[in-house]
Each structure stands twice: as structure tokens, then as C-alpha cells.
Backbone:
């Protein structure tokens, strides 16, 4: 039940256009319950078929969404690079140079965030699938899990190598165009300001995703060999600071 | 073998051959059909369907399966043309899982565990020579230019006709000579060129069918079971290397002609180049771009949608960020909160980057762990299937580590043989995995055909100690 809640929370925190494309975990669980409750073999068979059908449908949904987003990211990535090139070429005497550069920086950071969110999307859906399949096997005594998850591993939505590469390229671009000279200068602000910084939008979503992930790995009741160990951040990590703060909306 | 009256795609198991046919008038005089083709010739009656025939890749002979709309026009065309290239070869093959292949364009469709990979490598020398000669000479002009795009032109008609069952038309053109991609491209180019002239003819032929656009589209209809198209273009040179689409979509599509293509940065580069050559994103047309790009398997549909996205991205770079999909970021809010200084904005961005980088890192780690868990599960499954005998050599490594997973006794699946037991409780530091493996396998090999409890008991060392270990 906990995953369901956390998934729901994550969905609420995610970008509006994305909310319909997450795993229908609840529905799958409902189907699972109906499988258990259906005793005549015909009913049961049908319920099981429905379950598998929905699973496949979900995977399809993930794939389409993911590939769509990926395509957008590829285009956007190239665009950003071209913009940077243009600004660099025009030189620093351009009057809008600083503004343009600042804008580009913001865009890159947000773009980076979106891509990371897509990876998070991929991962959370995968996790959900793995969980529901585990439940299925447990409830029905079937052997659906292993072969099915093997298939899932090969799906486009789970093969996130390209996105990962783009993310790293983004980071490199950022580091090269905006050398991190001021990174050390950042002292941690007061709590209110930090939360204010998180604000809405992409930053908030990535933060929420991170925290959710930590929550999910905190230690489940059904820890097994398939469970992942809890996330551990070094103490000095910024996350701890941000974590204490309740997710209040900024008016 | 399939004796359906209509041509249909047989998404087949390994040994099954699809029925294959043309209109009744053709068979006797059709010199190009290889004898190895099994099946009866049947009338095309339905919406565009192409029957697939499973052949080996080395099979030199080729078969042309016409597709037709409700009119028998195509069949007629086929009947009238005797100069059809012998080298068009349609085949469907079934492969399990992911197979990197020489064919540059692979689409897969699956149906509850089956996977069918349709190699879409095109281009054979003979094909090019014959078609080019034909097309040039217009010997059998009616076929060369008309029916080829016609058979490729699925969705226009298919979408308007319900598909029968779960089969749908898939065209896979496979060439024995995969390196001759350029030939196909030239041929396709010719088709595209010639189609301009014969648009009206095409329209006549497809009377009754839904031709959405005046210009003929080279489209490929996807099966209902959602075939993935994946294209890889590793080099700037227009060579498509082997690519295996990782995805198989096990479900059936709701949309009958849903195509999914996976773009890559390299492909996009080629796209941008082509667009620039044509004078920019506003002036470039999908057809022009498609021609310039010369990428096998790329359809105008793909190019069109990509061009649309491209245009949006270029002319609204601001709204990309501020579209309704995305809320304003913190920076906007900051400025409204009167914290407008450059340093603070920078600081906020830095913070944001921190979080994002962290999230990315953790996601990568998590993903790798998940992969490894499944890998182990699969390995163990294999071992059980091989009926590994217990109590042999692998037990040696038992005592070496105490990195045992904490097994949930109640959680173990009641069915024993595919005991997906793996020790994968790697710490964040990812230490000691190899030893884990060894001990796992030894442990699980002991209790043979499954006493789950015994398994688990053997595996559960001391959950509490494990947890404390992790918590350190």
C-alpha cells in the first residue's frame, strides 16, 4: 500500500502533462484482487488475461510517452547548443549578452531537470511493475514475473541510456560555459529561503522525486532479495536541509 | 500455412509460413514468384494487407505481395506487370528477445511473449537494377511506380478499414544484400519522384481508398501489436548499422496504424542538415527532407511529425519553457519576491543543479541494481531449469561472506522451481557482489525441487545484522 501512496504523491508532484502517463498501480491491484476472488476457472482465466492485457497496455503507454519526450529532448538539446554557439560567436560586447547567457543557463538547468524527471518517470514505473508482478506471483502462484520483467527490461521506456547521455552532456556544457567558480561561494540559506528557492516547477519536482525515492527505499515491510537498500546521503548533503521542510505551497 | 481468403499477415511462430497471394489473374503468368513460397494465392479482398512469408535471409528469390484496397485494382496492376523485380522479398522472422542484426531497420511486434522481428533492410542490387530499368523505361510503368508505393501505402486505406482479428499488414522488405542500402534508397527516391507524375493515376487506382494526401506516402502500417521501429544512425554517413530495437510491445495497440520511431541525436543531425539545405524549417517540406536524408525505413510520417516538433522548438524557445505544461520556475518567483540579484539567481540555479544531479545519480544506481537483480534471477532460473544437482562444487564459497539477503519467508513464491532467489543486497557501495553470487548459487542449489522454506532458511543469515550493517 505504501508504494501506491507514494506513487500517487509523486504523480501529484509531477509536471501536469505527465500525470496521465504513470502506472495505474491501483487499477492493477484491483484486478489482482478480482483474480484472487474469482474462483471458477473460467472467470479466473479471464481475470488473469485482463491483468496481463492491462500490463501490456501500460507498457505501451510508457513507451509512447517516453519516446515522444525523448524526441523532444533531442531536438531541444540541439537547439540549446545552437543558441550557445550563436551567443558565443557574437561575442561579449553584445548588449544582450549577459541576459542571453543567463537565460540560456536557466534553460539548460531546467532542461536538465526535465530529463532527470523523465528518468525518474521511467524508474518509478518500472518499480511499480516489478512490485505488482511480484504480488501477482505471490497471489496466484503464477510464474509471470520473471519472463515478463525480462521483457520490460528491454522496453524503450526502460532503456534510458540516451537520456542519461544527454543529461551528462548538459552538465558538461553547463560546466564549460558557466564555469563553477561561484559554486563554493554558496552558503546555505535559511530554511525559508531554501524552500522558496525550491518553489514550483521543475526544481520542486526533482526535489520531490528525490525525496520520494528516499522514502521508498527507507525500509519496506516486505524486504526481500529484490529490495533495494535504503538511500544514504552524506550528512553534509543539502538534501537533509531541504528534507526537513514540509512541502508547503508558496502563495 | 494459412488459407485465409484475404492476404494477411501471419505473425507466426517459427515454422509458420504466411499465406501469400495475389489476385486470381496473376499466378499462372507470374514468373517471379519463387517456388519456395508456400501458400495459396488468394484474392485480395480486404483492406491493405500484405502477407508475410517466412524465409531465410539468404533466399534469393523474392515475392511481391500486392496489397489492395477494396477494389481489385492492385491485383490488376500486378497482373499486368511482368517486369517486376524479383528481388523484393518479404519475410517475417521470429526472434526471441533482442537480436542485433545487420538489417538497419527492425521492427518488432510481439504477442504475449512471442516476438517477431521484421527485418526491414532494403536494397538489393537486382532490385535496383530491375526496377530502375523498368521505371526508367516505363515498360511496366503501371506497376513500377504505382503499385510499389501502393503496397507500401498502408495507413491511408487501412485506417479506414477494420482489421481482421489481430493481424494487420506489415511489410518487411528484406534484402539478402544488406550493404546495398543505397540501391534501395535510389529506388525509393525514384518511386517518390515518379509518384509525383503519377499521382493522379495513383488516386484512380486507390479509388475508394482513403488517400489522405495528394502525394503518395511511403508508409508502413504497424501491426496492431505495436511494432516498434527503431533506427540507429551511428555515423554521419548515411549508413545504418545493425540495430535492434530493444522494445517489444507486448500489447496490442488501440490505434491501428500507430508507428513509433526512436530518434537519435545522429539522426536528428541528419535531419537538421537536410532542413538547412532546404532553406530552413519553415521552407522545408517533409518530402524534401525525407529525400535528402536518405535514411532507410524513415517514413514521411516520421519526418512530418518531427518537423513539426522542430518548428515549435525553434520559434518558441521561450514558450518551451513557459508552456502550460511547465510552471514557472523558482527563478521567476524569486524575482517577484524581490531577490533579483544575479548572484542569488545563480545560487538558486546551482542548488537546483545539485538536486537534479543527485537525483540522476541515484536513479542510475537504482537502475543498475534493478538490472542486476533481474539478471541474477534469470541466471538462477536457468540453473534450475538445467536441474542443477545440489551439493556439488559451488557450495565451497558458502562461508566467505555474510552478505545474504534477508528473505521474507512469507514472500517467497509458492512455486518452487523458478526460485528467483538472488542475493543482491548490495550496499550502496556496491561491494562484494561477486562473492554474493557465489554464495547465492551454492545456497540455492542445495534444496532442490523446492522447499521454499528450506531455501529461505538457508539464505536468511541474520536479517537484523544485515540491516545494521547497511545502516552503518
Residues:
Amino acid at each position: 500500500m505504501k508504494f501506491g501512496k507514494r506513487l500517487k504523491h509523486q504523480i501529484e508532484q509531477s509536471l501536469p502533462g505527465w500525470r496521465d502517463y504513470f502506472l495505474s498501480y491501483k487499477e492493477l491491484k484491483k484486478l489482482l484482487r478480482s483474480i484472487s476472488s474469482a474462483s471458477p476457472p473460467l472467470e479466473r482465466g479471464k481475470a488473469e488475461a485482463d491483468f496481463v492485457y492491462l500490463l501490456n497496455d501500460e507498457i505501451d503507454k510508457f513507451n509512447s510517452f517516453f519516446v515522444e519526450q525523448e524526441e523532444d529532448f533531442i531536438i531541444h538539446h540541439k537547439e540549446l547548443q545552437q543558441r550557445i554557439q550563436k551567443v558565443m560567436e557574437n561575442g561579449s560586447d553584445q548588449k544582450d549578452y549577459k541576459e542571453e547567457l543567463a537565460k540560456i543557463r536557466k534553460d539548460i538547468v531546467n532542461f536538465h531537470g526535465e530529463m532527470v524527471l523523465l528518468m525518474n518517470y521511467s524508474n518509478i514505473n518500472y518499480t511499480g511493475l516489478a512490485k505488482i508482478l511480484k504480488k501477482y506471483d505471490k497471489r496466484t502462484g503464477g510464474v509471470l514475473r520473471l519472463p515478463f520483467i525480462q521483457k520490460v527490461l528491454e522496453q524503450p521506456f526502460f532503456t534510458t541510456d540516451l537520456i542519461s547521455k544527454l543529461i551528462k552532456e548538459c552538465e558538461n556544457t553547463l560546466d564549460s560555459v558557466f564555469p563553477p567558480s561561484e559554486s563554493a561561494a554558496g552558503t546555505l540559506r535559511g530554511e525559508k529561503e531554501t524552500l522558496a528557492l525550491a518553489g514550483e516547477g521543475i526544481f520542486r519536482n526533482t526535489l520531490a522525486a528525490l525525496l520520494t525515492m528516499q522514502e521508498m527505499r527507507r525500509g519496506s515491510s516486505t524486504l526481500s532479495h529484490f529490495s533495494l537498500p535504503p538511500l544514504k546521503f552524506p550528512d553534509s548533503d543539502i538534501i537533509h536541509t531541504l528534507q526537513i521542510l514540509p512541502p508547503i505551497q508558496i502563495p | 500455412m494459412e488459407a485465409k481468403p484475404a492476404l494477411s499477415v501471419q505473425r507466426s511462430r517459427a515454422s509458420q509460413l504466411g499465406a501469400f497471394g495475389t489476385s486470381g489473374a496473376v499466378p499462372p503468368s507470374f514468373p517471379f514468384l519463387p517456388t519456395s513460397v508456400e501458400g495459396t494465392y488468394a484474392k485480395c479482398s480486404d483492406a491493405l494487407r500484405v502477407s508475410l512469408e517466412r524465409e531465410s535471409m539468404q533466399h534469393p528469390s523474392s515475392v511481391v505481395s500486392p496489397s489492395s484496397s477494396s477494389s481489385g485494382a492492385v491485383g490488376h496492376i500486378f497482373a499486368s506487370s511482368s517486369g517486376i523485380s524479383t528481388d523484393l522479398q518479404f519475410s517475417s522472422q521470429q526472434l526471441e528477445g533482442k537480436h542485433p542484426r545487420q538489417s538497419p531497420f527492425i521492427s518488432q511486434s510481439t504477442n504475449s511473449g512471442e516476438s517477431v522481428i521484421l527485418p526491414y533492410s532494403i536494397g538489393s542490387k537486382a532490385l535496383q537494377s530491375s526496377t530502375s530499368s523498368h521505371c526508367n523505361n516505363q515498360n511496366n510503368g503501371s506497376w513500377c511506380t504505382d503499385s510499389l508505393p501502393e503496397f507500401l501505402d498502408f495507413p491511408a486505406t487501412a485506417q479506414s478499414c477494420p482489421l481482421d482479428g489481430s493481424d494487420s499488414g506489415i511489410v518487411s522488405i528484406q534484402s539478402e544484400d544488406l550493404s546495398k542500402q543505397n540501391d534501395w534508397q535510389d529506388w525509393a527516391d525514384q518511386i517518390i519522384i515518379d509518384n509525383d507524375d503519377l499521382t493522379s493515376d495513383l488516386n484512380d487506382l486507390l479509388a475508394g481508398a482513403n488517400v489522405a494526401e495528394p502525394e503518395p506516402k511511403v508508409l508502413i502500417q504497424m501491426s496492431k501489436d505495436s511494432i516498434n521501429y527503431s533506427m540507429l544512425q551511428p555515423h554521419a554517413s548515411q549508413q545504418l548499422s545493425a540495430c535492434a530495437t530493444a522494445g517489444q510491445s507486448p500489447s496490442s495497440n488501440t490505434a491501428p496504424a500507430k508507428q513509433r520511431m526512436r530518434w537519435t541525436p545522429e539522426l536528428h543531425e541528419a535531419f537538421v542538415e537536410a532542413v538547412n539545405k532546404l532553406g530552413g524549417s519553415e521552407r522545408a517540406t517533409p518530402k524534401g527532407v525525407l529525400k535528402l536524408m536518405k535514411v532507410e525505413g524513415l517514413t514521411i510520417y516520421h519526418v512530418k511529425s518531427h518537423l513539426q516538433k522542430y518548428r515549435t522548438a525553434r520559434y518558441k524557445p521561450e514558450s518551451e519553457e513557459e508552456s502550460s505544461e511547465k510552471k514557472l520556475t523558482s527563478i521567476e518567483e524569486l524575482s517577484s519576491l524581490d531577490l533579483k540579484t544575479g548572484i542569488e539567481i545563480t545560487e538558486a540555479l546551482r542548488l537546483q543543479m545539485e538536486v537534479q544531479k543527485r537525483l540522476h545519480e541515484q536513479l542510475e544506481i537504482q537502475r543498475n541494481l534493478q538490472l542486476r537483480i533481474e539478471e541474477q534471477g534469470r541466471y538462477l532460473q536457468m540453473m534450475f531449469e538445467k536441474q542443477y544437482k545440489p551439493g556439488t562444487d559451488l557450495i565451497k564459497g558458502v562461508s566467505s561472506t555474510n552478505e545474504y539477503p534477508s528473505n521474507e519467508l512469507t514472500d517467497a513464491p509458492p512455486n518452487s522451481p523458478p526460485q528467483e532467489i538472488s542475493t543482491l543486497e548490495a550496499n550502496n557501495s556496491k561491494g562484494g557482489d561477486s562473492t554474493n553470487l557465489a554464495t547465492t548459487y551454492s545456497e540455492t542449489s542445495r534444496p532442490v525441487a523446492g522447499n521454499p522454506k528450506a531455501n529461505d532458511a538457508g539464505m536468511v543469515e541474520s536479517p537484523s545484522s544485515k540491516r545494521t550493517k547497511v545502516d552503518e
Q: What stands out?
A: The mean pLDDT of chain A is 80.
